[in-house]
Amino acid sequence: MRKVIDCREFPSEVECSMVFSGEADEVVRAAVAHAVAVHGETDGPELREHVRASLKDELVLQHT
C-alpha cells in the first residue's frame, strides 16, 4: 500500500503545503530531504523515525 505524509499536519514557521506519496522508503527519503532543505531540520535517526511513524496509508478513490 502506498504511504503519504502531508506537511500541513506539522507545525512550522514555513507555511508549507507539500504532500509526499509513494512506497514507504521513498516517502521517508523525500520527506527527510524536504525537512532538512526547507524546514531547517537536522537529518538523523530521530528525524527519520519521526517521519516513518507519521506515514499514513494513502486513500485511493476508485472510479466506476
Q: Would you kindly provide a written description of the structure presented here, covering whatever features stand out?
A:
The protein is α+β, with helices and mostly antiparallel strands. The chain has one domain. 41% of the residues lie in helices and 16% in strands. It has 2 helices and 3 strands. A 3-stranded antiparallel sheet has the order 2-1-3, covered by helices on one side. The radius of gyration is 12 Å and the shape is globular.
Largest sheet, strands/sense/barrel: 3 strands, antiparallel
Q: How many structural domains can be distinguished in the coordinates? A: 1
User: Which secondary-structure class do the elements indicate?
Assistant: alpha+beta
Q: Give the strand line-up of the largest sheet.
A: 2-1-3
Q: What letter string, H or E per element, gives the SSE order?
A: EEHHE
Based on Cα principal axes, name the global outline: globular
The radius of gyration over CA amounts to: 12 Å
Q: Count of DSSP helices? A: 2
Distance between the termini: 21 Å
In percent, how much strand structure appears in the residues? 15-25%
How many β-strands, per DSSP? 3
By oligomeric state, this entry counts as: single chain
Query: Would you identify the regions where 5 or more consecutive residues have pLDDT less than 50?
Result: none
Pfam families: DUF1059
